[in-house]
Structures are given as C-alpha cells and as structure tokens.
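Much of the work behind modern protein science is quiet bookkeeping, done one molecule at a time. Below is the pair of lines this work produces for a single protein:

***
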Amino acid sequence: MRTDLRPRTLLIHLALIATALVMLYPLIWMIVSSLRPGNEIFRDPGLLVKDLRIENYRAGWNALTEPFTRYLLNSAVVVLGSILGNLVSCSMAAYAFARLEFAGKKMWFAIMLLSIMLPIHVVIVPQYILFSHAGWINTFLPLIVPKLLATDAFFVFLMVQFIRGIPRELDEAATIDGCGRAGIFLRVILPLMVPALATTTIFTFIWTWNDFFGQLIYLTDPHMYTVPVALRSFVDATSSSSWGSMFAMSVVSLVPVFLAFLLGQRFLVKGIATTGIK
C-alpha cells in the first residue's frame, strides 16, 4: 500500500511545485527586471540577468519630486492610524454585539453584515462630498478617521465570532469580583482576543498598504502621496525610459508586506481558525 502511494504522492508534490512556480513567475520576473537595463526588460522574458543594474534602485529612489522615503513614511502614517482605529473601534463594537443587550441588536448586526457586501464605489461619492465640506481633502484624515468608527464590518464580525467562543462564566466571575462592563472588556475579553487582534492588524496592514483607489481619490498633493499613488506617478513621470527604476521601487514597496505576512503568519492562521471562519 505504501509503495502504491509513494508515486502518487510524488506526482501531487511535483504538480503543486509546478503550480507554485507558475504563480510566482510574475513576482520573480519583476524582481529580475528591477536589476536589468531598461531596453532589455521586455525583450527577454527569461529570469537570467546578464547585465546587473543595481543603480536602478538608487535612480528610482530619487526619480520623483520627493525621495521615496517620503512616500514610505506617508504610507506608514496611514497604516498605523488605520490599525489603531480598527483595533480600538472594532473590538468595542464586537464586544457590544457579542455580550451586551440593547434595542435593535439583531437588526443592527444584520445591517452591519450587509455592509460587507456593499462595494466601496457606491459610497465613495457621498463620502468625498462629506470630507470635502469638512476640509479634509488632501489630508490623511479621510483614510484614518473612518477606521475609528468601526467601518470595517469584516473585522467586527471576526471579533464577534471570537468573543462568542469565550465562556460567559469568565464574565460572571469578573462581575462577582466587582468588574463592570468596561472592566470585563479590558481585563478579561481583550487579553483573550490576541489572535483576533493580530489577524485584524495583519489584514489591515496589508489592505491599507496596498490600497490605491481611496488614496488616489483623497490625496492630490505629491508631498502627501502614499506608496501605491507614488508608483502610479512614477510611471507618469518617467514614461517608458526607466522601467527598471519603477520595478525597483515596486520591489521595495512589497518588502513590508512580505515581512508583515511572514512575521504574523502564525497569528493569522490561529486567529482565523479560532473564529469559525472557513
């Protein structure tokens, strides 16, 4: 039986490896292209570098009106604000839905779930008008403030599912010890929500760092650009004469995402597994 399974297992692993190489080819090609001269990038689809051009990274770093460090810092500000906002607001909203009783609870929870299916393009126009009247255009506020209001329903739902798995006996024991609702949330529920909070942090980081549409709409001053918008401007500014520099900066922009995923992979898997989301 083992002899029969070995060739089958080997074939499955070879098929998986081949599929992984096909999926990774565009990424590997981009990394290789960042090290090639511009006139060879689209002429050679292979992955061998004949003429190594490290200076593509140096040229790309200073190709726009601001050094690329500025765009990385802008993205970092937006990402950190979004993470903080989601962790605070979504955890509080999830605790209310999972543990508190209030009028219209089921209705509001259903509306919250329905908002997950609402495309961002439906609300972008009224949001833009609102933020424009508030004088927030060309600032980071439209990208951060909504996160403080628990607008990411996916994370609220994820945390609700996690909290429902925490025994209510812990709440009762904390009540007997003199804790109120705030004390139960801060001292009992929140410390046990670390996997869900870590999952929220990782997803928020990746989605916000890679977001292009929202940042393109609200940020108009090149000094305020984040990394995705800067890469778009990079193409506009350098045209087709500096593709190597553009790919070099694309590789730089992917490094934080890879690090976030690799460092938080264990928490990501644990957080999703313990919330019942399949």
In short: The longest helix spans residues 2-33. The chain is about 70% helix and 0% strand. The CA atoms of residues 237 and 256 lie 24 Å apart. The chain has a mean pLDDT of 85.
